Amino acid sequence: MKIALVTGGSRGIGRATAILLAQMGWRVAINYARRTDAALEVVDLIEQQGGSAFALQADIADEAQVMAMFADIDRQPGQLTALVNNAGILFQQATLEQLTAERINRVFATNVTGSFLCCREAVKRMGHHHGGSGGAIVNVSSAAARTGAPGEYVDYAASKGAMDTLTKGLSLEVAAQGIRVNGVRPGFIYTDMHADGGEPQRVDRLAPGIPMQRGGQPEEIARAIAWLLSDEASYITGTYIDAAGGR
Ligand code: NAD
Fold first, then answer.
1. CA of 130 to the centre of ligand 1 (A)
2. I need a surface site. Which of 109, 111, 132, 150 has the fewest CB within 10 A?
């Protein structure tokens, strides 16, 4: 059985992706940071639909916890063939002058370092050089990587830009190992991330400025992620899908 790991899979885009990947036949490893109940709810839902899933607690910014999480996956039946680097954090709007080193470091620790660590451990398991059968990685970046999010969250935007560069560099580094690496850049999507960032109504406020005149649903991002992981995208690596309603 093939296993897909989705980081931050207990809610939002990660949850929608985990459910869709299970419907496509993956046994899904649902990583979560704190909310065991929410992660187990996703596992239950997948199992009710006849799919297969399990939950793994780990702070992806913590190297030891990432190593332990992958060791747990090694003990599962099946082989890791897909990774979705979805876990990410966004803090309240702030101008550049208001940004502290602590905030910048926290954003980069999760969004960038966490994604790097998960890529490293996944490649060790998927890569032909390591005896693996290949696989695919999708990094969930953001439209902010291109806009820069001036006056709002330049720290977050810069971290997503770093993820895009990771996607490009890693895709070239591991192409000969049978691993594809791509990115998805969502626009404004209806998830709890905006409430955590201090503005629950952000998507509705910004919707009129989106060419398609609406925010996106997590399932619309999940479909782009799942397609890139699937054999339908078997000759595609090192690129990005902008799923942002034309923004
Ligand atoms: P969300 O806040 O609902 O989900 C993010 C998940 O990541 C949460 O479950 C959170 O607990 C988890 N997480 C955060 N830090 C973690 C850590 N250190 N270790 C493990 N898990 C951790 O938000 P979402 O909107 O579903 O975001 C998913 C991804 O999509 C993020 O990378 C986000 O930056 C990106 N994104 C979202 C939007 C949007 O408008 N919602 C737009 C562009 C990009």
1. 30
2. 150
pLDDT, tens only, 10-19: 999 999 999 9
Which pair of structure tokens corresponds to residue 9? 């899979």
The reply to whether ligand 1 has any atom less than 6 angstroms from the CB of 244 is no
pTM exceeds 0.90: yes
Structure tokens at 138: 């999708």
Alpha-carbon distance 246 to 232, whole Å? 23
Structure confidence at residue 81 (pLDDT): 98
Q: How far apart are CA 114 and CA 75, in angstroms?
A: 22
3-class secondary structure, 242: strand
The phi and psi torsions of 38 (rounded to 5 degrees) equal -65, -40
58 in Cβ contact with 65 (< 8 Å): yes
Helices (H), the chain: 12-23, 36-48, 63-74, 101-108, 115-126, 144-147, 154-174, 193-196, 202-206, 218-229
DSSP state of 148: -
Please indicate whether residue 59, judged by its CB atom, sits closer than 6 Å to ligand 1: yes
